[in-house]
Amino acid sequence: MPLLQHLCQLLYDSHIGTMIRESDYAFSVIESVHVLAVTLLVGTIAILDLRMLGLVLRSISITRIARSVFPLTWSGFVVMFLSGFLLFWAEAAKNYTNPAFRIKLILLALVGLNPLIFHTTVYRRVHEWEVLAISPWRARIAAIASLTLWSGVIIAGRAIAYF
To answer: Any idea which UniProt keywords this protein has (predicted)?
Structure first.
């Protein structure tokens, strides 16, 4: 048995994994918290992405919006990560072979690379374009990639239950 599959089986068979999975309420409560955290995270990211596309809040600078939403974005991320890990823990052995889960992980890696690339390139010169109604093409590409990848993460996450 491959090491990763063995680790997934250990998580699945653990007391915590079994407790979450077999509880009348634990899994559904954790899943609800996860969905709300994803909503907070993606919602705040979408505000910034839609602003960079020039579709909303055109009169407000990019950096002002970013400063306003980033604390909420990070809060959503932390809760999403922790609740997602607990959901994975409860179903690790099943998720190991689930194609929707694997696609979600790939999309999460890509959605993590997108802001890393954006903030180390285009955003470094934000002071030059932050008040423009429509951002430069590279910022718009990053915004479109972000919205597309997050949509994919949500769709793949939802599909996990059906595979």
So the answer is: Membrane, Transmembrane, Transmembrane helix
